[in-house]
Amino acid sequence: MRTRFAPSPNGPLHLGHAYAALVAHDTARARGGAFILRIEDIDGERSRPAFVEETLLDLGWLGLPWDGKPVFQSQRLESYAAAGERLKAMGLLYPCTCTRAEIAAAATTFGPDGPVYPGTCRDRRVDPAAAAAWRLDVERSLTMTGPLSWTDEVAGRQTATPMMFGDIVLLRKDLPASYHLAATLDDAADGISLVTRGMDLFNATHIHRLLQALLELPVPTWLHHPLLVEPDGRKLAKRRGSPSLGDRRRAGEDGRTIAQALREGRFPAGISLSRGVHQTP
Ligand code: GLU
């Protein structure tokens, strides 16, 4: 079995990341599996090599060593582009020129990521050269795959309901791939059999399951773990004042002691674990 920790190097890691890495690491170790580190660095605007360096140091300091070499999404852009072409050739992606404001004005329902795209460009003849994004025709995709399900080790068997997102963006002009496409392809490429990640990505799994069916990828099991939250129930974030792991490391704190406290469910004052967080990145 193989698990992974997949941070995006667009900021310093904090205690919430340490908890996510610990779940992936400890589960792999307990089951005699491998723990893979994948750096999700395709957002060129926000990714910084310095944060990658810090991530490697933080994991070593926490006593959570990964197996093999870290893998970098920035080195896999061809595979994302090829999958995009494959979905286009299947007639499942369409170009979209709508702006965020247009979508907000036209949307009539809300999904996990905010206003649900009402399908404005689905039947329009948009010049592909003018497209800001390519969207997945989710309904049409589901007619090809039929009903889908997936299994979370804690929440149990789930019926896949990707239509809750509307026709999501899979390719963007300003990015090599969307999170959904890159993460799904990489979990397959890395042979991940148990995807551990936070509850904030629970709903994203409905999309990932659909992409796996369309692209004929193996289907892992998932384990969406609770998130560390602040007293107001929102997940920890550096900008809201919790010190980063790097801050703690440089201040001379012992990373292994911190990891052990997280394992035992001992958290800093005001911080607790919650399964009730539903946000997507
Ligand atoms: N890169 C994502 C993040 O840092 C995690 C993605 C995943 O685990 O699927 O939030």
UniProtKB/TrEMBL annotation:
<dbReference type="InterPro" id="IPR000924">
    <property type="entry name" value="Glu/Gln-tRNA-synth"/>
</dbReference>
<comment type="similarity">
    <text>Belongs to the class-I aminoacyl-tRNA synthetase family.</text>
</comment>
<keyword id="KW-0067">ATP-binding</keyword>
<keyword id="KW-0648">Protein biosynthesis</keyword>
<protein>
    <submittedName>
        <fullName>Glutamyl-Q tRNA(Asp) synthetase</fullName>
    </submittedName>
</protein>
<keyword id="KW-0547">Nucleotide-binding</keyword>
<keyword id="KW-0030">Aminoacyl-tRNA synthetase</keyword>
<dbReference type="InterPro" id="IPR014729">
    <property type="entry name" value="Rossmann-like_a/b/a_fold"/>
</dbReference>
<dbReference type="InterPro" id="IPR020058">
    <property type="entry name" value="Glu/Gln-tRNA-synth_Ib_cat-dom"/>
</dbReference>
<keyword id="KW-0862">Zinc</keyword>
<dbReference type="InterPro" id="IPR001412">
    <property type="entry name" value="aa-tRNA-synth_I_CS"/>
</dbReference>
<keyword id="KW-0479">Metal-binding</keyword>
<keyword id="KW-0436">Ligase</keyword>
<dbReference type="Pfam" id="PF00749">
    <property type="entry name" value="tRNA-synt_1c"/>
</dbReference>
<dbReference type="InterPro" id="IPR049940">
    <property type="entry name" value="GluQ/Sye"/>
</dbReference>
<feature type="domain" description="Glutamyl/glutaminyl-tRNA synthetase class Ib catalytic">
    <location>
        <begin position="2"/>
        <end position="244"/>
    </location>
</feature>
